[in-house]
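seq as requested:
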Amino acid sequence: MSWRMRGEGTRLAELCRLFGVVVDYRDVTGRSRRPPPESLWAVLRGLGARLPAGRAPVEAEVRDALRVRRRELAERPMPPVVVAWDGRLPSLRLRVPDDASSPPLTLHVELEGGEERRIDVAGGGPVIDRREVDGRRLAVRHVRPERDGDALLPPGLHGLRVTAVVRNGTGPEIARAPLISAPSRTWPPGGGAGVGADPAAWAVFLPLYALRARGTAGVGDYGALARLGGWAAGRGASRLATLPLLPLFLDEPFDPSPYAPVTRLFWAELYLDPEDACDRADSRAARALLRSKGFARRRAALESRVDVDYRAAAALRRDLLDRVTTEPGGVRGLSERIPAFGRFLRKRRGAPDFAAFLAACERHRAPWRVWPSPARDAPLRREGLVAGRDFDPAARDGHLVGQWLAEEQLDAVVERGRREGFGLYLDLPLSVHPDGYDVWRERTLFAEGMSVGAPPDAFFAEGQDWGFPPPVPHAMRRSGYAYLRASLAHSMGPARALRIDHVMGLHRLFWIPRGAKPEDGVYVRYPSREQYALLSLASHRHGVEVIGEDLGTVPEAVHGAMDRHGVGRLFVVPFELDPDRSPALRDPPPGSVAMVDTHDTWPFAGWWHGGDIDGRVELGMLDPSEVDRARERRARERRALVDWLAERELIEAGEGATPAGVLTACLEALGRAEAGTVVASLEDLWLETRPQNIPGTPGAARSWRRRARVPLEQLDEHVEVTAALRRLAKARRQALDAREHREWDEDGSRR
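struct tokens:
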């Protein structure tokens, strides 16, 4: 029997509605799906509903939970967060006790710079409705500025207070909330569809861990990233795209996935350039280690590998950092000797706490949930970890120096980009590792016993469980979104463009209770308006274009919000190709980021030859009985793509098309379109067939390990690589010329 048919069904549905829990949704096939009651109860508990743990509540308990939730909402006089788009303070509905006295109201905006603005309320805030909740009579008052000019506010995160007006001046405070004043569209200012800061942008893409270059030690480093950016800019690219550069767990626990970082607030020490680190720290001990035969042997062994040995590469760099801290005076002496280190400590006041957490992980060699109570629960007591008891101070100091050097080296990449004409296109992961620093430090922001995932779809018939905890919407609001703001500021700092992983998470996330199957997960709604406002505000402050990862099953409402707020979409050729449609492939939407594949798909040559089909069979993601049908469709997709390119006179029609020829023509076609940015994966250009990541498999087992076959210094020796990029650069210039030509009227004046 469906829970909707039981006596408590109506109350359960109402409780879900009041907590933003979705009781049914449509899957990729359009079929309605309803989570089991057990999942709904678990998610409601995770959101703070007053329900008993470990069992289904009885009807009286559901009634009590409903009464408590209604009272909580009724006692909220105005929205928890107020958004002023383009600085215009909106009208508000203020819910206050209904009594005989109804004094006029005044608004007070406390600007983030310290100034306060007093704004008179039109009509004093007249009563427009009355209602009763749990026996309490409430009046709804309409609160809006008396003069339109008073409503214009500068961008920023302000505070809003509502006070009563009494005979002698300002009376008691009635309500208070954070106020986000933000441009309605993300940066650049005035950018319409298809108009970005660089209207002919194109990028090369390679994961930094995969980059081979002279002088690296088993994994790409920040110095090699700068050289790759310079190489790409020399061929006309204005972007260098890579995966997140955030810290990872590379010991115990071990997870090399860039999308399960330890934190979203610091940079990875893994990518330190050893020579540059020794120079910046001016450490004799580190230089001596760097020049030793033992270090050279370790480096050579790492460089000879076809995949990344994360533990060994991290240990090599850690040994250098430990030598830096053995210099006279330790980190204190370093801060006195190297002014840049002292400035880092003053600027990044949370760095010692993060370094101590990493050192504690090394001491306990276990997730923080099983640490002794004083260390495990230090953040709940608003305390820090204790040196000696919780961690080795020398280990903490090594990580502190590593964080300084990582920031310095990444700043050097940005500075080279300014000089040579390229900017970083970075990626903000949806969340963090459940055992990581952010969850330990900010655990009240994350739902315990839950993980984020995705419902069943065409590729994952049983759904996906991504393993990291979802943020709790009301906790985010209560904190003023401090953690989200810090995460955005951190990743936007060095970036020129930022991709928001799983942009649908701004609207809703799929929660999976611990022990439940992914197919039994539940969607939870999030305050998207507030998050778009924070995203827009941050993008303008940092001058960063924003792209949303909107692949998979995405409701049209999400695309509508992205368009309204100037968030670019992704356009990935195999996902957009439909051999049963005419045309089989449409042009990328204006302003989108267009590419042939992503880090989560097989490279183009692998797709062309059906390697993804073989891989899905091997991993149990595709039933062997479906293989023939999948191969037949792939053959039709190949023909349709060739025909589409031939119609544009980019390739000859027929069966003789080669993967290299089709790929180059495809990039040129994307380059001619009005996409905001076109991304070319370097591995595609030399026809790599193996993927970097296979979604749905454990990260430590098969993904995020393979190093690029072609080193940076040999890229120019590959005629296919340079020829494809020349055609892409030319196509982007032609697209820009055509766009500028359309912007001129026949009489020569700009429209």
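Residues 1-7 have pLDDT under 50 and may be disordered.
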